[in-house]
Design a protein that fits this description.
Number of helices: 16
Helix content: 25-40%
Strand content: 15-25%
CATH architecture of the largest domain: 3-Layer(bba) Sandwich
Shape: globular
CATH class of the largest domain: Alpha Beta
Number of domains: 3
CATH superfamily of the largest domain: FAD/NAD(P)-binding domain
Largest sheet: 7 strands, mixed
CATH topology of the largest domain: FAD/NAD(P)-binding domain
Number of strands: 23
Distance between the termini: 67 Å
Length: 484
Amino acid sequence: MPYDYDVIVIGGGAAGLTSAGIATNLGAKTLMVEKDRLGGDCTWTGCVPSKALLKSADVAHTIRTADSYGIHVHEAEIDFARVMERVRNLRQEIYEDADAPEIFEEMDIEVRFGEASFADPHTLLIDDRYVSGRFIIVCTGSRPFVPPIPGLDEVSYLTSHSLFELIEQPDRLAIIGGGPIGTEMAQAFQRLGTRVTMVEMHDRIMPNDDPELATMLQATLESEGVRLRLGAQVSGVVQENGSLRLMLKGEEESVEASSLLLATGRRPNTEGLGLESAGVEYTEQGLAVDSSCRTNVSHIFGVGDVTGRYHFTHMSEHMAKVALTNALLKVPSSIDADHVPWVTYTDPELAHVGAREEDLDEAGTSYKTYRFPYSRVDRAITDGATTGLIKVHARPLNGKILGASVLGARAGELISQYALAMRNGVTLRSFSDTIFPYPSYGQAARRAADQWYAQKQSPLFTRFLKKVFGYRGPVIEPEPGRIV
């Protein structure tokens, strides 16, 4: 049966842009449909604007703490309107450089704006026109989840979709949610001069990250003035005399704020797609796909946030590669679920890849944790950035890396080294034997690997060497926790 297109991509965010780019490069006649604007959450409401705002906040913090470096400056004066104007200008610049429609049209990708819904498994209705595709890739992304808190629908609140449109700076900002978005924005706004209170239902922030490292980051936020209400659940919100009041379940004390940011997770965009007409299975958590990104309908694939599996731009790109490899090349390819890195871009950064300690313990895996503090990283010492710790979980016998967590400066770059090592079977022994430039943060990853060597040191072997070669030095007994 002839189809209008070889591939139709629904959605023009990170997942859709990558899917369409791969499809056309593999010779497929490709249509990309987007109901709003290309770039998606990453460009407009996520990665790009949040990191731009974090940079402005970092500059303000650097000025404020310049005296510790021997530099005397006046207190930073925050022009919030200009800060936000810079954020919006940068995302527009990135959009024009990488996401504008003409860029993809020059690649022979047809770009159409409108709302798409399935009429049947191979046919989409885009506004008032029907088109058919041999393969259809659903990349409709996700949106902020608004929890059913009593009174919330009667007050004004912010989400990541509206936060970066602010012009006036909030005096007091309450944030519900202590995950990556809430934690990054708490630090950013506090450093820019807003008084921030963050409410998290767990007993610590960043519940998906290493508990020890998350607690260290938590201490940093508190030292900068962020007020944390942990183990607390918001039971209601009211607006009184122009101020917001958040009632906490089981507590008499409430949280007062002038603005409220919801950082309470995301939900997949599956509404209006007519998935039932295509026979595609889905739940509230997202499109049901297997490890090849294929739905229960063999020619329809789901990529990115709409699947509910991951909410990372880099995983959207990875999943797009997996889906198109299966669809167009007919080469079996699977999501690399064992080596998914993530980074929270606070100061210090918090990053992770692979298995967590709780995962290893639950699976009964034999492992050992090798630690190296930033206080022993010479580059961190010279930069005044000694808050941090590297933790690597590996098999003690051969140094196979099972997972790693890093809190500290450039943690995002360090975790990338571990992701590459794990993906390619590089052990701590090979890591330790590799030459890294000094002084660099990258060398910290090698120093952590050195701990595997140090803890494998055998006093029996040392005594053997002393006896054979007549050496006269000491026999060093390995000590748990000793850092070399």
